[in-house]
Amino acid sequence: MQKKPKPSTLNKLFGVNVKLERTRLGITQEELALRVKTEQPYLSKVERGVVASSLDFVERIAKALNVKPIDLLDENLGRRSRENS
């Protein structure tokens, strides 16, 4: 039986930042999924960091959240969000 690979730290960071920005905008996973033309269960996996997203998907998410793609890979995004609250 083959072990499932562990999610990468970058995938987790991206997922956490997507969730931070989504909640900052006050939208649900369903709404964001509609905006990026994907399914809500897939978006849930993205937010949990269990799937690797393509660069195209990163760009689509960033556009839907009104941020730059690089912002979704920023380790300090959560800290900045708390400071700006």
List keywords for this structure.
85 residues, mainly alpha, 434 Repressor (Amino-terminal Domain), 5 helices
The CATH class label is: Mainly Alpha
Would you tell me the overall average pLDDT? 89
Shape: globular
Mind telling me the C-alpha Rg?
13 Å
The CATH level-2 architecture is identified as Orthogonal Bundle
What does the largest sheet look like?
none
- Helix-and-strand structural type: mainly alpha
Within CATH, the superfamily carries the name: lambda repressor-like DNA-binding domains
Specify the number of helices.
5
Number of domains: 1
The helix content, as a percent range, equals: 55-70%
Question: Uncertain spans, ≥5 residues at pLDDT below 50?
Answer: none
Beta strands, count = 0
Quote the beta fraction: under 5%
Q: What is the fold named in CATH at topology level?
A: 434 Repressor (Amino-terminal Domain)
Order of helices and strands: HHHHH
Cα separation of the termini: 47 Å
Describe the structure.
- The protein is mainly α and 85 residues long.
- The protein has one domain: Orthogonal Bundle (434 Repressor (Amino-terminal Domain)).
- It has five helices and no strands.
- Helix 1 packs across helix 3.
